[in-house]
Specification:
Elements (H helix, E strand, L loop, with lengths): L1 H30 L13 E2 L4 E3 L5 E3 L8 E6 L4 H17 L4 E6 L8 H11 L5 E3 L4 H5 L7 E5 L4 E7 L4 H12 L2
Parallel strand pairs: 4-5, 5-6
Antiparallel strand pairs: 1-8, 2-3, 4-7, 7-8
Length: 183
């Protein structure tokens, strides 16, 4: 009998808590008016900084590029979709490289992709865009890259403008670049 009294008492307490929560919610939600809320003007997300190596082994930081738009593309030599979009990136580099900084960041794990293997891949295909090596996964971790290719567009103030996961066509890439060029 004592056990059943405890269960009844707990059920009543739970019922009182739920009823009180419902009354409080009803009262507070009537006072809330979305139009009275302050507008959110912080729609800009600062681009996380990261460090990679250039083709000569020098350390390069994304923040070194502040002041001009930057497009960052995370890729690897073994990634088929990455290989498919590379010609579009090379063409875009040739067309927009004087107005937008390109950071083609190879996810260099040291086994599937090495610096030497990535350099040979780029040279064999005749790509001219600048290549960087994320040997410590600084960029991949900063941007939560868990699928490649992944592309991030950053404005001259260092804010993320757009991001895309998966291979892009030449038209999709041009449309993305137009966001920071005002075209």
């Amino acid at each position: 009998m004592k056990q059943s009294q405890k269960i009844v008492a707990l059920a009543l307490c739970l019922l009182l808590v739920l009823a009180g929560g419902w009354l409080l919610y009803s009262r507070l939600s009537q006072q809330y008016r979305p139009e009275a809320a302050a507008p959110d003007t912080s729609d800009k997300t600062p681009a996380p900084d990261f460090t990679v190596l250039d083709e000569s082994g020098n350390t390069v930081r994304l923040s070194d590029r502040k002041g001009a738009p930057v497009i960052v593309n995370f890729w690897a030599t073994w990634c088929g979709p990455c290989q498919n979009e590379m010609p579009a990136f090379d063409d875009a580099w040739k067309e927009y490289g004087d107005r937008i900084q390109f950071m083609m960041v190879d996810l260099t794990d040291g086994s599937r992709d090495t610096v030497d293997r990535a350099k040979a891949f780029i040279a064999d295909r005749g790509y001219s865009f600048p290549v960087y090596f994320d040997t410590e996964y600084s960029g991949a971790m900063a941007y939560g890259v868990n699928s490649i290719p992944a592309t991030v567009l950053i404005d001259g103030d260092g804010n993320i403008v757009a991001a895309h996961v998966g291979a892009m066509s030449a038209d999709e890439l041009k449309n993305m670049l137009a966001l920071v060029l005002g075209e």
